[in-house]
Write a structure and sequence with these properties.
alpha+beta, ten-stranded mixed sheet
Length: 544
């Protein structure tokens, strides 16, 4: 140990004598370590960390084969639950069901999820306060009840335990708060603030086998595997599809973690591969710098050997310098990663799921430290091996094997060029694909277009015709008023009355910032005319 401490002191003095080399090598390694640390933290949090639920590997998402965007209906869930035996629980979920909470004269949007009582068997979490939904809450005509998420309970109710039994007016429906549960119950990371029973807010759901407005999730039984559950699901759903003459409703399942991260998985692995190549390029660059410096120090090393230093001592000195570079560069890279990680997480919030748990924690720091030290040791390996293999006497008089040195340096430069070319080629292909996507015609001029949504109470507007009538009678007028307030010019709001299309309006404004600020006025006007309420069926509106 004392020998290594001595070598580290010598290595520190050696680096101080070559500040240009030290700064360049440390900065190169720090940038490479910072890049791979940030991307590894994202990859670990998004793809590798299991869902924060008991037995999360047994939780699956079900989807229609060949039609990932097509959902299922509540009768589908009931029929499947009666026939499936390898599932412990099955539940439909409407994961982003917009509700309006009314306290006084000002409505507030609440991000809710409509679920069956079996949903809480799937997440397998005990309530923090009160109770969860029960089968009695699933029956048509049952009173409306809701379970608050812990975060919403703390922010909206100041974590008051007396909130149980309180009545909330949600989308025109008086709803009793029966419990509080941890936010981990939000498996899809959709920002759900409360979970509510289905019939009071979607009275059409129990009798609409063709509605297909819900997602389907389940928990595989403890005595079954996911593969066995998938096979049973495919068989049972095919039987139901034949009985109902609906061949499109054959279902498959995948682990919930894969389902949630499906859109980000390929991109994150590609990004991790890219930063790994970048770190390898940095390592090769440092190795070339170390090799050139070792050639300049050949006489010094040879003289030390001639004065009695063994080759193992010389090797230990070079490795100590590499370890010191790795320690300093790795530490600086981790500091840079921590400093920039919050900004990157904010920028990627809409593109990546599960970012709430992403952090540069101890496990990420450990991986980054090991990578930094390995990179530094790899960069020092070639000069160290040359010390072991060459004769010191020939190096003292300066008659070293210059041809061998040139070949080694040429190989490193070739490796650097190859890695840089691969990165540049991949970047060029991605840029070309991005430009090609941007060049695709949209069929309209998107300049200045923003979107808004108008939500009508499901209890009063549960059919398309009254929804369309209310929107055309009052919504279009409110948009025209907002457009005039935003100094709009030209353009006439138009409504699409074709069957099966959601009502929308289009206008044109010069100042999109003013239009965006005017949209809340539109919603307030509609709510005032239709009884301070909202519903889960959103109606999108386009504004130019």
């Amino acid at each position: 140990m004392n020998a290594w401490i001595h070598e580290f002191r010598c290595a520190w003095r050696s680096l101080l004598r070559a500040p240009g080399f030290a700064v360049t090598a440390i900065a190169t390694l720090a940038l490479g370590v910072a890049g791979i640390t940030v991307v590894w933290a994202l990859t670990e949090a998004v793809l590798l960390e299991p869902l924060p639920l008991p037995g999360s590997g047994q939780i699956v998402a079900m989807y229609r084969v060949g039609r990932d965007e097509a959902g299922v209906s509540l009768p589908d869930s009931i029929a499947l639950r009666e026939r499936l035996h390898r599932f412990e629980a099955v539940s439909v979920v409407a994961p982003d069901f917009a509700l309006d909470r009314v306290d006084g004269d000002r409505p507030q949007r609440v991000r809710a999820a409509l679920v069956e009582s079996t949903y809480f068997q799937i997440v397998a979490l005990a309530p923090i306060h009160g109770r969860l939904l029960t089968p009695a809450d699933d029956r048509p005509g049952a009173a409306a009840v809701a379970v608050l998420g812990e975060g919403y309970w703390r922010s909206a109710f100041a974590a008051n335990p007396d909130v149980l039994g309180r009545q909330l007016m949600l989308s025109g429906v008086s709803t009793e708060i029966v419990g509080v549960i941890a936010d981990r119950a939000d498996m899809g990371e959709a920002g759900i603030e409360l979970w509510a029973s289905i019939p009071p807010f979607a009275p059409w759901a129990p009798s609409s086998p063709g509605s297909n407005n819900f997602e389907l999730v389940g928990r595989v039984a403890a005595n079954a595997t996911v593969a066995q559950a998938r096979a049973e699901l495919a068989t049972v759903s095919a039987e139901l599809a034949r009985e109902r003459s609906n061949p499109d409703k054959v279902l498959d399942a995948m682990p919930m973690l894969e389902f949630v991260t499906a859109g980000a998985r390929q991109g994150l692995w590609l990004l991790l591969s890219a930063v790994s190549l970048l770190l390898l390029l940095a390592t090769a660059n440092i190795a070339a710098l170390v090799l050139v410096r070792s050639n300049r120090r050949a006489a010094e090393l040879s003289l030390r050997h001639a004065l009695g230093a063994s080759r193992s001592q010389l090797l230990r000195q070079l490795l100590a310098e590499g370890l010191l570079l790795g320690l300093i560069g790795g530490t600086l890279g981790i500091v840079l990663a921590i400093a920039g990680f919050g900004l990157l997480r904010d920028l990627a919030a809409d593109a990546l799921p599960r970012l709430a748990t992403a952090a540069v924690d101890l496990s990420v720091v450990t991986v980054a430290g090991v990578v930094a030290l390995l990179s530094a040791l790899m960069s020092s390996a070639l000069p160290a091996l040359r010390v072991r293999s060459e004769r010191a006497a020939t190096r003292v008089v300066g008659i070293g094997n210059q041809r061998s040195e040139t070949r080694a340096l040429a190989r490193l430069i070739t490796l650097e060029v190859a890695l840089a070319s691969a990165l540049l080629g991949a970047t060029g292909l991605l840029a070309q694909s991005f430009l090609a996507l941007n060049a695709l015609p949209l069929g309209f001029d998107p300049g200045g277009v923003i979107s808004g949504e108008v939500v009508l109470p499901e209890s009063r507007y549960d059919q398309l015709q009254p929804q369309s009538r209310a929107f055309h009678e009052h919504g279009a007028g409110a948009f025209r008023a907002a457009r005039r307030g935003a100094r709009g010019a030209g353009g006439r709001p138009a409504a699409d009355r074709r069957p099966g299309h959601r009502p929308h309006a289009v206008g044109r404004g010069r100042d999109t910032g003013r239009c965006r600020r005017a949209l809340p006025a539109v919603r307030r006007r509609l709510l005032q005319r239709h009884g301070h309420a909202g519903a889960g069926r959103t109606r999108h509106s386009a504004w130019r």
